[in-house]
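Table S2 (text version). Query chain:
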Amino acid sequence: MKQYREIESLADWESAYSESANKQLVIFKHSTTCPVSANALNEFNAYLQENPAADTDYVLVKVIESRPVSNKIAEDTAVKHESPQIILIKNKEKVWSASHWSITTEHMTAVLN
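Corresponding structure-token output:
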């Protein structure tokens, strides 16, 4: 099973964002107080257990606890903040994003694999 890592600081984000020049990056923005986000996190975890894209880094940002990181991601990717939200970055450019009930294992598999 592929694992995500939580990013909690701007330095963590800058490192992950820079690495997207070499390896695609999937960001999951999660609200720890939202039931829709909890469902999306379950879908994200199911995707990672089944057949995740191999040459990909997966990160999670808790939007309430790490608000500056969440805001910087929105700024750097030009993707308006929503949560839950998933964003695919390649070469420091947003390629795809989805939010709320659109975050499903099937949708992630179709786009990422």
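Notes on Table S2: The radius of gyration is 13 Å. Residues 30 and 102 are 14 Å apart (CA to CA).
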